């Protein structure tokens, strides 16, 4: 086995600056630290700081405007999510906390969908089920062909969040749920998880169509519970 390559000073500075953006909640378009402030923050030379900023600009995390300063770029949020996804997915305690957060988001999505349907009792058609019904049909075909259900499972939950009609809510869910792709694959690959995933999804949709928020939330909790066990046991 080859020895692990030590991080260069430039990479150390880049990681510290990524952490700074995340910890301070900087948004696309926000002004970032200037060169002098970064030198003071990370304790590195101006040359190393300039190299780090150029590298961050090359991957779209920041935008450098000569004579104006450094700004957080539009693509920085996605880039940082990828970075934290690797780090957090190796931390069991953090993963359990993220699963709690994901569960709350999924249950809130169910409440929002049912609320949308019940806003007009005379004609509860504000929520469109066609996309999620198509997802169930695709999953059923995949089972018959003995294909992987992982992508269909991911799309089911994405569709559920889109059905809330709240774009911000959907984008927030994307940040959280992507951390579970690896454990999702392990769960679905197990013999008891392969077919039950489809059955559980279909049950959730059935209860949503009946505007049974409590029943759908219980079904969702049951659906997600194996993930908690797998994370806790380090499987």
From TrEMBL:
Keywords: DNA-binding, Transcription, Transcription regulation. Gene3D superfamilies: GntR ligand-binding domain-like, Winged helix-like DNA-binding domain superfamily/Winged helix DNA-binding domain. It comes from the Bacteria. Residues 7-75 form the HTH gntR-type domain. GO terms for molecular function: DNA binding; DNA-binding transcription factor activity. Pfam families: FCD, GntR. InterPro entries: GntR_C (IPR011711), TF_FadR/GntR_C (IPR008920), Tscrpt_reg_HTH_GntR (IPR000524), WH-like_DNA-bd_sf (IPR036388), WH_DNA-bd_sf (IPR036390). This is GntR family transcriptional regulator. It comes from Paenibacillus nasutitermitis. The lineage of its organism: Bacteria, Bacillati, Bacillota, Bacilli, Bacillales.
């Amino acid at each position: 086995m080859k020895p692990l390559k030590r991080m260069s000073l430039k990479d150390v500075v880049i990681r510290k600056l990524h952490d700074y953006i995340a910890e301070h909640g900087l948004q696309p378009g926000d002004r970032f630290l200037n060169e002098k402030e970064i030198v003071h923050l990370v304790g590195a030379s101006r040359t190393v700081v300039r190299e780090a900023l150029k590298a961050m600009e090359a991957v779209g995390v920041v935008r450098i405007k000569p004579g104006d300063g450094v700004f957080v770029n539009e693509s920085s949020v996605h880039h940082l999510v990828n970075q934290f996804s690797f780090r957090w997915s190796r931390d069991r305690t953090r993963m359990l906390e993220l699963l709690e957060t994901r569960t709350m988001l999924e249950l809130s999505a169910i409440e929002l969908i049912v609320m949308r349907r019940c806003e007009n009792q005379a004609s509860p058609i504000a929520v469109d089920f066609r996309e999620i019904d198509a997802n169930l049909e695709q999953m059923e075909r995949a089972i018959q062909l003995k294909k992987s259900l992982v992508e269909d499972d991911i799309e089911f939950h994405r569709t559920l969040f889109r059905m809330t009609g709240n774009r911000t809510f959907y984008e927030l869910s994307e940040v959280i749920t992507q951390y579970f792709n690896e454990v999702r694959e392990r769960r679905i690959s197990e013999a008891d998880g392969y077919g039950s995933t489809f059955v559980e999804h279909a049950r959730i949709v059935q209860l949503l169509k009946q505007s049974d928020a409590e029943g759908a939330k219980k079904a969702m909790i049951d659906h997600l519970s194996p993930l908690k066990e797998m994370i806790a046991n380090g499987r």
